[in-house]
Amino acid sequence: MKIITERSDLAFEAGFSQPEFGLFRDVPGLLHSLHPRLQPHGLKLSDVRVERGSGNVADHHLLFYLFDYAMTIRIRTERIEVACSSLPNPETLERYKAAIVDVIRGVKDFNHDLVIRAQSAFGSLESWSA
Predict the structure, then answer these.
(1) Percent of the chain at pLDDT above 70?
(2) Do residues 29 and 22 touch, judged by C-beta distance below 8 A?
(3) Rounded to the nearest 5°, which phi and psi values hold at 96?
(4) pLDDT average, residue stretch 64-74
(5) Which runs of consecutive H residues, i.e. helices, occur in 1-128?
(6) Is 42 exposed, middle or buried (0-12, 13-18, 19+ CB in 10 A)?
(7) Mean pLDDT on 68-94
(8) CB contact at 8 A, 104 and 118
(9) Which of the two ends of the chain, N or C, has the fewest CB atoms closer than 10 A to its terminal CB?
(10) pLDDT in tens, 92-125
(11) Strand 79-84's sheet: what is its strand order?
C-alpha cells in the first residue's frame, strides 16, 4: 500500500510576552525593517496590506502574502501568525521556514525589546492510499 499526500498545511504562531501597543506607531519603520528580509522570498508591495479592522486594537495588523499567496503572515499587537498551504515537498518547507525566521528577525530588528514568550506550530496532512 502506498500513501499519497495530496495536501499539507502549516500554521505557526509566535506570541509576544506582552502586547506591543507601540508596534504600529511607526508602520513605515516596521515595513522598512521587514521589506528587505521578505523581498528575497518574493514579497511585492502589492502583497502588503495594513488592516485596521473594526478599529479595536486586536484587529489592527500588517498582512503579507508570500510564495504566490501560499503563505499568509499577520503581524498583530500580541503575536505573529503564519499560515501556509500546499507544502508539496521538503524544499518548499525549507523556504517557508526561512521566511518565518526572517519575519521574526525583522520585527525584532524594529523593536529590540520585543520578547517572544511562546511559539507553536501545527501541521495537517490530507492523504489517501493507493
Answers:
(1) 83
(2) no
(3) -65, -45
(4) 94
(5) 27-38, 90-110
(6) middle
(7) 86
(8) no
(9) N
(10) 788 888 999 999 999 999 999 989 887 766 665 5
(11) 48-51, 61-66, 71-76, 79-84, 3-16, 116-129
**26: pLDDT confidence band, cut at 50, 70 and 90?**
very high
| CA atoms 99, 104, 82, 30: torsion sign | negative
Q: Are 14 and 79 in contact (CB under 8 A)?
A: yes
Cα separation, 25 vs 8, whole angstroms: 36
| CATH code given to domain 9-129 | 3.30.310
Task: Give the phi and the psi of residue 64 in degrees, each rounded to 5.
Answer: -125, 140
> Length of the chain in residues, anyone?
130
How far is it between the farthest Cα atoms of the chain?
56
Question: Using an 8 Å Cβ cutoff, are 7 and 73 in contact?
Answer: no
Pairing of strands 79-84, 116-129: unpaired
Distance CA 31, CA 48 (A): 9
Q: Could you tell me which of 52, 51, 67 has the C-alpha nearest to residue 100?
A: 67
